[in-house]
Specification:
The protein is α+β, with helices and mostly antiparallel strands and 880 residues long. A hairpin with a 5-residue loop joins strand 2 (19-29) and strand 3 (35-45). Helix 3 (320-339) packs across helix 5. The model has no long low-confidence stretch (mean pLDDT 97).
């Protein structure tokens, strides 16, 4: 949709559909230039809605025929909809036949039916099905589907769709067909088809009930050796969901297909998940430990949607977190359960919270702030956000915290008993959890708890303490507030579970428990203490809030050294580092780290009781974007300089310790992507980076030389890329031959080249050198802006993930950004809109960046033919 057809959609305006579609028979004659689609539907009026015309959504379709019960009928086109007014009266079903054509090869939006690498793929969520055929393209219209695919057998030997394959065979003229029947009713956004030259890894599994199932992972020929981990992850997902929640696989087969052209990470189409290759392909030569972990998580996420999203789906798109927030929570729990020991579980929790605090908290404070369940949108694709996903997951996690692990499982069981096969709301889910646990605080405070769904912004919990040495009474006063957000000035109190503990001065735990904050302010008292305790507040990050408490360095050092809660040990290190970074940024004084902080970091690095993955997290400084969010007026270049100076001082001061860490944690045996081995590689990578930074400061060539040798000799991508990143990050001259060598080795591996591009575009800025490099990379023969992964690897790595280089005082970064947003919008509005959000927080910038950023946003907004996707983002950014 373009300007002139823009329309804001409001949750309050929801109306049930005037018609239901009971069954759909689709027949595709697949051709890249002109695909023919015959759509036969059984349609009936909704007796609960006043009689009205049938309005079917369609976009970029060529309409050839419309028949009602086999007869021609009159119709008209209004605002992109096919309108049928003269339909049979009464509630009896009738047959509607629509014949259309479309041009998949010209579909650069990658929504609907499109061609990638000479194969056909679909992406229908949220509103892509209307680009395949005219339909009631809304999630509450659920139908049964029978799909017949016909295509040239030589060019497209594999023909896939949802459900079960019931018939296939050869046709005349070298063509063939396949007929698929999905036994479950589904909304059209879960429809999928794939056709092309593909090969499959197959595995048969048996469920607990004794049923056999076929699992398949389809990829292009040549990539089959990179599918073992994806298959193992799928098998683990099937077993975990049945074990943890009693949810079995419900189809004869479950298929995953990988494509290199995909706007998102993956899509949970019923029984036929379509994935970005990034989240399927892995072997030790081409994928890092992070890639392995992400594949496990995303495969789990999409499989878990089979129940939380497919069997029970969303009534409308405002309820998106009903499936996404819940399923993110489920994939986080899956990864934690597979991690095993408590330390590895804690590492996973910290990693999830880092994403929340560096991405979702800024969104909550910016122009695109919205509740977990939004109230309005112009373009629904803009609301596939970290608020809906990650904050939505935290809301579900708080439910489990309040009713317990077993209580939550009971609630999920009741949810499916009530709503299997239905399209429902977030309220329905919350009610099921409450009704399964009627005596819980969650059930008793359900109405108040649901403010997490309706109120935007990140709540702030302010803590004040008091200790009376005479009476021995220690008190904690907890006060909650939430800043205003666009369209919401006043906020009512939330239900906030706060896990806390108290330690004595030597670090011994005195007490622990959970307090549920429901009022604007509450005071807790703890009698019987001889000395003032050290509070450990918000353990495990028990609620998605900003904790405001003026910890002293002494208290933080006590927590870092002794807290039984791993999250708060990590958090203590983050607060120590953030406090110092903010002081340096604000004072403009030279960066000089104090001895107590350095010694604390040395103690962590040398502590034999801590595992390597946890040490890596503690010793990694807070991100520049996180530091920026703690400041009212932001100078991104100053923050970058301060953080880099802190890194160099940590590198230099702990030089012998980094040398010890590198040598002591090097992996020499067979590659394994398990948490322990991955943690050791992460710590050696961090050590190598610091050793190269220290060498840069001292002009010593020994460790860069060792890094280059490590780069050449590495037996896995994690070690190889860590060594390359150490050279690039430190700016050593050996980075140039290493980058050239890396490209020569992996020039035919698209996902590895994405890493190569991203490393250079995201490198530390030294004298404004990164933007010229980015411009050169865009001219590289291997760069293709039409491929979302490649565009993200260069453009997003610079504009969204490299603030020190992007926010140039000469505004050249903003000019580059506006050019790319406009260029991408003409071909792929979804990708363009995500890039547009790189300047969401422009109002926080110091001058001259602030004015220059606004000018760049206004330049984009002035384009007359912007997509709704981009127009919504830039308009909200410019709004007062």
């Amino acid at each position: 949709m373009r300007e002139g057809t823009s329309k804001v959609i409001y949750r309050a305006d929801y109306q049930p559909p005037a018609f239901w579609i009971d069954s759909v028979e689709l027949c595709f004659d697949l051709d890249p230039a002109k695909t023919r689609v015959l759509n036969r539907m059984r349609v009936r009026r909704n007796p609960e809605v006043m009689p009205q015309a049938l309005r079917l959504d369609g976009e970029e379709l060529n309409l050839a025929r419309v028949l009602v019960d086999g007869q021609g009928t009159s119709f008209k086109m209004e605002e992109g909809q096919l309108v049928l007014e003269h339909l049979p009266d009464g509630n009896a079903p009738f047959e509607l036949e629509i014949f259309t054509t479309c041009a998949p090869a010209k579909n650069t939006k990658l929504m609907g039916l499109y061609v990638s690498n000479d194969s056909f793929f679909t992406q229908c969520e949220a509103e892509g099905f209307r680009r395949i055929t005219y339909f009631l393209d809304r999630p509450d219209v659920m139908a049964s589907y029978t799909v017949t695919l016909r295509a040239d057998k030589r060019r497209y030997p594999v023909l896939l769709s949802n459900g079960n394959l019931v018939e296939h065979g050869d046709l005349d003229d070298g063509r063939h067909f396949a007929k698929w029947v999905d036994p479950f009713r589904k909304p059209c956004y879960l429809f999928a088809l794939v056709a092309g030259k593909l090969v499959a890894r197959e595995q048969r599994v048996t469920s607990r009930s004794g049923k056999d199932h076929l699992l398949q992972v389809f990829v292009r020929p040549g990539d089959l050796d990179k599918t073992e981990h994806a298959m193992n992850s799928l098998m683990a997902s099937v077993a975990w969901d049945e074990s943890r929640f009693g949810l079995p696989l419900d189809l004869e087969r479950f298929m995953i297909v990988a494509t290199s052209d995909f706007n998102m990470g993956a899509m949970e189409n019923k029984g036929l998940n379509i994935f970005n290759t990034k989240y399927v392909l892995a072997n030790q030569a081409t994928a890092t430990d992070t890639d392995y972990a992400n594949i496990e998580s995303v495969v789990g996420h999409e499989y878990f949607h089979n129940w939380t999203g497919n069997r029970v789906t969303c009534r409308d798109w405002f309820q998106l977190s009903l499936k996404e927030g819940l399923t993110v929570f489920r994939d986080q729990e899956f990864s934690q359960d597979l991690a095993g020991d408590p330390s590895a579980r804690a590492v996973k929790r910290i990693e999830d919270v880092r994403v929340l605090r560096t991405a979702q908290f800024p969104e909550d404070a910016g122009p695109m702030a919205h509740p977990v369940r939004p109230d309005q949108y112009l373009e629904i694709n803009n609301f596939y956000t970290v608020t809906v996903y990650e904050k939505g997951a935290e809301v579900v996690r708080m439910m489990q915290t309040l009713v317990g692990r077993e209580g939550f499982a009971r609630g999920l069981t009741l949810y499916f008993q009530r709503h299997d096969g239905q399209a429902v709301t977030c309220d329905d889910f919350a009610q099921a959890i409450a009704d399964a646990n009627p005596d819980s605080q969650f059930a008793q405070r359900l109405g108040q708890f649901k403010r997490w769904y309706s109120q935007a912004g990140t709540p702030r919990v302010r803590v004040q303490t008091n200790f009376d040495p005479v009476s021995g009474i220690y008190s904690l006063t907890l006060s909650q507030s939430c800043p205003s957000t666009p369209g919401q000035a006043e906020k009512l109190p939330f239900v906030i579970p706060i896990a806390l503990g108290l330690l004595d001065g030597s670090g011994r735990e005195l007490t622990s428990g959970m307090h549920v904050l429901t009022e604007a302010s509450e005071t807790l008292t703890f009698p019987g203490y001889a000395e003032e305790p050290v509070p450990s507040i918000l353990r495990g990050f028990s609620a998605p809030v900003v904790l405001e408490y003026d910890y002293s360095d002494r208290q933080l050092l006590t927590l870092l050294a002794n807290d039984s809660d791993p999250f708060n040990r990590w958090e203590a290190a983050q607060r120590l580092a953030t406090g110092r970074a903010l002081a340096f940024v604000r004072s403009q004084e030279p960066v000089r780290l104090d001895a107590p902080y350095i010694e604390a970091m040395r103690s962590v690095l040398r502590d034999p009781a801590l595992d390597a993955a946890f040490k890596d997290l503690v010793l990694t400084l807070p991100a520049e974007t996180y530091i920026a969010e703690q400041i009212e007026v932001v100078d991104p270049q100053r923050i970058h300089l301060v953080r880099e100076a802190m890194r160099e001082q940590i590198a230099t001061a702990l030089l012998p310790d980094w040398e010890w860490a590198y040598e002591a944690h090097k992996e020499s045996g067979a590659y394994r992507p398990d948490p322990v081995s991955s943690g050791r590689r992460a710590l050696t990578g961090l050590a190598l980076t610091h050793l190269c930074l220290a060498a840069r400061a001292s002009r010593d060539a020994v460790w860069p030389g060792k890094a280059y040798q490590r780069f050449k000799d590495a037996s896995n991508m994690t070690d190889r890329f860590n060594a390359l990143a150490a050279l690039v990050t430190s700016g050593h001259e050996l980075a140039t031959p290493a980058l050239q060598r890396f490209h020569a080795i992996f020039k035919d591996e698209a996902l590895v080249l994405d890493k190569w591009f991203a490393l250079q575009a995201g490198a530390p800025d030294r004298g404004g050198n990164v933007l010229p490099i980015v411009r050169q990379l865009m001219q590289h023969p291997d760069f293709n802006i039409r491929n979302p992964n490649r565009a993200r690897s260069v453009i997003f790595s610079y504009c969204s993930a490299n603030p020190g280089a992007f926010h140039r005082s000469d505004a050249a970064g903003y000019v580059f950004w506006s050019d790319r947003v406009i260029e991408l919008d003409a071909m792929n509005p979804q990708v363009a809109a995500r890039l547009a959000r790189a300047l969401d927080r422009w109002k926080k910038l110091a001058e001259p960046q602030r004015s220059a950023a606004r000018e760049a946003i206004a330049r984009v907004a002035a384009k007359p033919d912007l997509s709704n996707d981009v127009r919504e983002v830039v308009s909200r950014a410019l709004a007062d």
